[in-house]
Amino acid sequence: MKSVLRFVIVLFLVNLVAASILAGVYRLTKPRIEAQEALVREKALKEVMPESVGDRIEAVSEEYWKVYKGSSSKARGYIFIARKYGYSSVIETMVGMKRDGTITGVAILNHNETPGLGAKIVEIVSDKTITKAIKGIFSKEKAPEKELSPYFTEQFKERSVKSIDVSNIDAITGATISSKAVVDSIKSKGSEILNAR
């Protein structure tokens, strides 16, 4: 009986020390994590509504913003966060949308989908080949590097929130559930905002 009690006490102390260390690390890293998340959101705000430079963006809530042109009182667009469970995690997207429901941009903020499959929702596909890269090295004229963005999210631009569907979006091969989750979340939240205004 004494040996069982000793094992219980030792196990309790080991767990207490481990939990204390984890809590300390969490406390130290929490401000940095929050600052990084804020930077990602700020970048995504500009990315999903690129023509809003100089416009007034007012937060309605933590997940919904209205975009105004100058001193106008009529919103010319909306930015919102949509969420839906994909194959293995909740996929969080930020979406820019004009008043008529036309999508101006989509950015994936957070996901933990399967690497190589569902994680392709953020994969950037380049048309640069080895041959082009070698030619670029020896070329006297340097072509400006164009900023690449994920192919999957680029498909949403200039489409109506009301009419997007997995059937008219190139879903990611082998990751239909992740693709459908993104499409459904955008369509649902976008329609909700358009109906509420």
Would you spell out the secondary-structure blueprint of this structure?
Elements: H1 2-48, E1 56-61, E2 64-68, E3 75-85, E4 90-98, E5 103-110, H2 130-138, H3 151-154, H4 176-196
Antiparallel strand pairs: 1-2, 2-3, 3-4, 4-5
Would you mind describing this structure in some detail?
This protein is of the alpha+beta class and 197 residues long. The protein has one domain. Helix content is 41%, strand content 20%. It has helices spanning 2-48, 130-138, 151-154, 176-196, and strands spanning 56-61, 64-68, 75-85, 90-98, 103-110. A hairpin with a 4-residue loop joins strand 3 and strand 4 (90-98). The mean pLDDT is 84.
Quick structural overview:
It is built from four helices and five strands, in the order H-E-E-E-E-E-H-H-H. It is of the alpha+beta class.
Largest sheet: 5 strands, antiparallel
Beta percentage is 15-25%
Strand order of the largest sheet: 1-2-3-4-5
The pLDDT mean sits at: 84
Helix content: 40-55%
DSSP helical segment count = 4
Structural class: alpha+beta
Distance between the termini: 69 Å
Radius of gyration: 23 Å
Number of domains: 1
Shape: extended
